[in-house]
Design brief:
The chain is mainly α and 313 residues long. The protein contains 14 helices and no strands. The protein starts with a helix and ends in a 30-residue tail after the last helix.
């Protein structure tokens, strides 16, 4: 990967890490369920008018939108509004990676390598340690809500895999059409129309910061960040690009410490290191040993066996 592309990947990790600070600012003013509906409505309206249909089966688009959009952000925003520290939320959400591996093995019959299994076990141990530390601080419910959000993300990843989009960015944008109506209905039932109306009509300093956070989440976190990430994924192997996402909780926890004054216990830091390390280990490939007779194959060793060339599905 060229150096400038690495810089782009780093910029996406920075954008996504700071996204948690923007969410925290928005949650100060907007009720969490309504905020999810508002976030995706702002993307869905221009998408339906300007972006071509992604050409995937409707059931997988709805499944992607329900898992990634509804479940992930319903539980993430609910957890953060209930007291989940912003920096730790960026970390716990990385549990989506081992969840995705397990769902892929269960429902898609994808083979789980020994390396992936070890990575999942390390990440699960890290999650258990963070959860134990949260329980010690009487804050286990926000942790579990955020963990449920990570599982929702994994469901979305599985449906995305089944959709097989030719243009992943179009699918990501069209996925935003799914969450607004169910989240608005849930917000009206749980948060009530008075609270929703108050958040739309009363703006002071917190309201201005909340709107700025919402704009950042929609424009920078979703459109720009996802656009650059998709562009990189189409030009480089996933194993080269994906590990850069492990910098998101590093940025998120650092920004939460600098901006919000959040601190983490030593146990949470150790658990976080295990999560990041486990996901990173499981998402990279080990070096394959060279064939024993590679040196003896001569000039023909670089020729490809037609029987081994993958055929289009």
């Amino acid at each position: 990967m060229p150096f400038r592309h690495r810089l782009l990947a780093l910029s996406v990790a920075l954008m996504w890490g700071l996204n948690f600070i923007a969410i925290d600012a928005s949650l100060v003013h907007f009720p969490p369920f309504f905020l999810v509906a508002l976030r995706f409505a702002l993307i869905a309206l221009p998408t339906m008018l300007l972006v071509p249909w992604p050409g995937v089966p409707v059931r997988w688009l709805v499944g992607y939108g329900f898992g990634f959009g509804v479940l992930q952000f319903l539980f993430l925003y609910w957890g953060m509004a209930s007291g989940m520290p912003t920096g730790l939320a960026s970390l716990v959400l990385q549990a989506s990676a081992p969840f995705t591996v397990l769902l892929g093995a269960t429902f898609l019959r994808e083979r789980v390598s020994g390396r992936q299994l070890v990575g999942v076990l390390i990440a699960v141990c890290g999650m258990a340690l963070v959860g134990w530390q949260r329980a010690e601080n009487a804050a286990i419910v926000p942790f579990l809500l955020t963990l449920a959000g990570a599982f929702g993300w994994a469901i979305g990843n599985t449906c995305n895999r089944l959709a097989r989009p030719t243009d992943p960015l179009r699918l990501t944008l069209w996925m935003s059409v799914v969450p607004p109506l169910p989240m608005l209905a849930l917000s009206l039932a749980v948060e009530g129309p008075d609270r929703i109306l108050d958040s739309l009509t009363s703006f002071g300093e917190p309201g201005a910061a909340a709107v700025a956070g919402l704009v950042y989440t929609v424009v920078i976190g979703t459109v720009v960040g996802s656009g650059v990430w998709t562009w990189l994924m189409t030009r480089h192997p996933a194993g080269v690009v994906a590990p850069f996402s492990m910098l998101v909780p590093v940025v998120g926890m650092t920004a939460a410490w600098v901006v919000l004054g959040e601190t983490a216990s030593p146990g949470e830091l150790v658990g976080g290191a295990l999560v990041v390390g486990g996901v990173l280990w499981g998402s990279t490939r080990g070096r394959r040993p060279a064939p024993p007779n590679a040196e003896k194959a001569g000039p023909r060793s670089n020729e490809r066996d037609p029987a081994r060339v993958p055929q289009p599905e």
